[in-house]
Each structure stands twice: as C-alpha cells, then as structure tokens.
Amino acid sequence: MKNKRFLVVFLLVSLVLAGIVSHYASSSPDGLEKVAADKGISAKEKDHSLKDAPFADYGVKGVGNGRLSGGLAGIAGVGVVLLVGGGAFWLLRRRAPARDA
C-alpha cells in the first residue's frame, strides 16, 4: 500500500512538473540551439527530416496554443519514459527464488 501511494504521488508530481511547471523553466529549452542562434552558426542549418513529427520542437503538432502544446508534449514524454522505464524494470527485475514444494 505504501509503495502504491508513493507511485501515485510520484506520477502526479511528474505530470504537474512536465505539464505545467516546465513552461516556466526556459524560453529556450534546447541550449545548443540557443547558442548556435546567438553565435550565428544556425544560419547554415537545414530542416531536420523529422521536423513535421507529432512532437517536434517541444510541442504537439496541431495544437495552436503554445503553452498547451508544450504541456501536452511534456505529459506525453512522462508517459513514454514511464512505459519504457517501467517495461525495462519489469523485464529485468529479479524474481523471487522458487519455493521448494
């Protein structure tokens, strides 16, 4: 029961941080891209082949509101990390030794 409560609180905090608080973290979430723009290096950049992907540029394609788009992308990211990390943990977990009958 205690572990279940911890997981629920962890999930809720993660979703709030990714969906709401991340909007206030930085106006330039990709530091390398910001430095390249500041130094003029990005003048030679070409569009990435995945520029039209559903979650390109820290947002959700088709959602016009930037805040909502970024929040949804963050929430989707939390979900993907939990699924992949949880799946890896589930696959690699140690199993209890078999009991002798």
UniProtKB/TrEMBL annotation:
Coiled coil: none annotated. Residues 4-94 form the PDGLE domain. Keywords: Cell membrane, Membrane, Transmembrane, Transmembrane helix. The keyword Transmembrane applies. This is Cobalt transport protein CbiN. InterPro entries: PDGLE_dom. It comes from Actinomadura rubteroloni. The chain crosses the membrane at residues 71-92. Its main location: membrane. The keyword Repeat does not apply. It is found in: Cell membrane. One of its GO terms (cellular component) is plasma membrane.
